[in-house]
Amino acid sequence: MDIEVADAPERNRYEARTGDGAGVAGYVDYRMADGRAVLTHTEVDSAYEGQGVGGALVRGALDDVRDRGLSVDPVCPFVKGWIDRHPDYADLVDESRSG
């Protein structure tokens, strides 16, 4: 399944959309604070659960955070767990503020 992840700053979230034009398949809410993205909540539409949308969404959000030169505070347990399983993204975590 093709998944495109894009920042939707007007809604303070990253959105995952499928190539079929069906709309938003999932999102990660965030707030910006002191040069870091605080990722607070991840949600995937039940129609897309178990299809890799959540992982693609987190990867896309973290890639954007990295491209922007920010750090991340993974408040959301799903995001924190994903980073724990993908240590190549651990450098983004602001250890002094993560919670």
UniProtKB/TrEMBL annotation:
According to the entry, every stretch annotated as the N-acetyltransferase domain falls at: 6-94
Look up the domain of life of the source: Bacteria
Q: What is this protein called?
A: N-acetyltransferase domain-containing protein
Q: Which organism is it from?
A: Streptomonospora litoralis
